[in-house]
Fold:
Amino acid sequence: MTTPKLANLTAAFISISIFLFLSSSPADGATATSLITGTCKQTPDFNLCVSTLTADPRGPKAAGVQTLALIIIDAVKAKATTAYADIKRLLKTAPELEGPLKSCAQQYNVILTAEIPEAEEAVSGGVAKFGEDGMRGSASDADLCEDGFVKVKSPLTVENKVVSGLAAVGAAVIRQLE
Amino acid sequence: MGDHNQPFLSVSGDPECAPVHDDSVVDDALHRPQGSSKSKLLLAVFSGIFVVCLILAGGYDKSGVVKIHQLEGGDEMGVGPMEMPAGSATTRPSVSRGKSAGVSEKANLSPQQLLGGGEGSGDGLSEDFPWNNSMLSWQRTAFHFQPEKNWMNDPNGPLFYKGWYHFFYQYNPNAAVWGDIVWGHAVSRDLIHWLHLPLAMVADQWYDVQGVWTGSATILPDGKVMMLYTGSTNESVQVQNLAYPADHDDPLLLDWVKHPGNPVLVPPPGIHHKDFRDPTTAWQTSEGKWRITIGSKVNKTGIALIYDTDDFVNFELKDGFLHGVPGTGMWECVDFYPVAVAGGDGLDTSANGAGVRHVVKASLDDDRHDYYAIGTYDEEAGKWYPDNPAIDVGIGIRYDYGIFYASKTFFDQSKQRRILWGWIGEWDSEAADVRKGWASLQGMPRTVVLDTKTGSNLLQWPVEESERLRLRSKEFKNVVAKPGAVVPIKLEAATQLDIVAELELDKEAVDRVVESNEEFKCSSSSKGAAHRGALGPFGLLVLSEETLSEQTPVYFYVVKGKNATLRTYFCADQSRSSLANDVNKQIYGSSVPVLQGEKFGVRMLVDHSIIESFAQGGRSVITSRVYPTKAIYGAARLFLFNNATEAGVTASIKVWQMNSAFIRPFPNL
Structure:
């Protein structure tokens, strides 16, 4: 393949990339559908709710609240997954925090292996109240992790707050399924 | 569906870019022998996509500050029915699952109210309690049905068959939270001493692979058993299936066969495929058909659908519904059964005619409470009408003013009584449940009869076999508690008890006290039992610690209203039940009719982390889940208390130590 063609292709590709980026940007208010805004108004963090839902390609296309609930659950899972990875890393790099970090590992393990699967199964199956339980449980476990750092500064504050806040939003979205 | 047995696997990467990080494709491209130009192109493509992903990922992670201000309506902070302060960085979402449980009014409580942490926990102490194994293992009950571990919810298909009481239940074999639901099974000779059997049904068919959900048993006149149950299909559609014992001669009913033609019912037109579950026991019509009802909803109206069948395989949907009540939402675990106007014995589910009233009961998904109403069944029309529409199903009387859901009755033909099972969930955190390895109990089975004195409510009472658990007793006659008194009731132990108490208010004080226009509800004061009136509260402090650092008051509160009429309320107050902050702290209960000449009477079953309280012979019942940290084992105490300001209380109390029921696996199976 000749160089000019490669350059053209690259240019075309960059244009497509920019287009894709712009059209899927969460900053685009037009993709916050009335379903999303209506649902998010009944949650404790409207902005977090809207931004999370519009950031997911399923969000603006969602036909019902169930899809929105599953998106939030996925977002909690993603955030909890990274938090868990960070905890594992910190256990090696910050041995002075071993106590609370071990508790956090426990709490996030519960979130990832028990509470999120519970929420997914319940929302998919149409028995929303157990989904609420799973989300509330996740929020509480993130709080438990944060509260474990009593006399020292928590290295996980931002992550814990995000998981906790998102899970609270999740519980509120699921509540609307009942 | 999560596989809870798997150890957690490591992070897999940014989900939005997952399809791109397909290493095999990249490897393939890099190793292609055709020449470097093609590989350069592919490299450019992937780099471009990689760059896009970086941008998108970066934008996603910064969902906090930058993006918010660019959103339409981004200044709205989500105020709505939620009472939580929105967007606050210090907000702590709800911890325990007591959210919609345990209040007599449908209050939408904020987490702060739920936790009772009004002053916050900002004194440097951890908000979530450091439970130790001793505290957690104390919570397991001695004589209430629970599996050896993991999660349980609804009672299923209870029946008496060939000398054994059978109990099935929603069970998660993999975790201490709801999920992967199958049918657990246990048998007992006496509804008390249960023996665990292997799982009765698992999720092994396309029509129940997402869950073997709740169902009910019907015993045919020839003795055969038909079990109808809800399956959640591979596409999460709710359908009804038929199962029956593989061997009707096996008294233990170990093995079950699923009808090859399942499902026997699918959601009818107009009914959403996720609003169709929990078929009832069938009853016979005068035409000789079998009739069942299944709960559902249409918009916000909860309804009970009616089907007729000859064979439990082919069903005919009847026009209209058995009944429906606007605004009540989805009706789960509907129950329908006759009660005798004259009280006394229970009735077979098919009983009808003069001297019979019919009860319709529904578990309301919206508030997680069980409601019932008494009324008239018009068999020909396939309809039921409440005696008093003001207290119709879902808007009137509850079986239980504490934690009690998904309940189900069955007719015990061996002793001619109707028996009620109810799922008792947890009021602690899911984290604690996972840590202790189990969640949920069943209530002590209760007989149900019509209250012949009032005619407008049921009476529930622990089955008489519960008295077989009674060991040594101690009697305390005419114990006087002056206004403000707390009187110790000295016992050898106070965690496994059967308490029967009769209390009287000082008559002279009752006559003397002026009329009050207090509008009382158990939940109206955040002080609970510390809120003092002229004639109440008075009752017992259960699972209490010597210095009362932890206490669970269960009590009466009497108000003298217009024309000197007395109104009585029966309440439980968990606000100080535990030093832990991640447990239910609500105050709840209801009014209870106390008739002329009646003393205030209560029977309480205390069994570690469960308290079941029956007032006025079972006219009002409260089940509580309590998780003390200090008032456990030998440190638990019982007190009589009187917080009335004007009247003394005299009580006669009999307390039995209760034995364990030794619930365990069936031996030598």
Remarks:
- Residues 1-35, 57-95, 98-127 of chain B have pLDDT under 50 and may be disordered.
- The two ends of chain B are 31 Å apart (CA to CA).
- Residues 122 and 186 of chain B are 47 Å apart (CA to CA).
- Chain B touches chain A through 79 residues (CB under 8 Å).
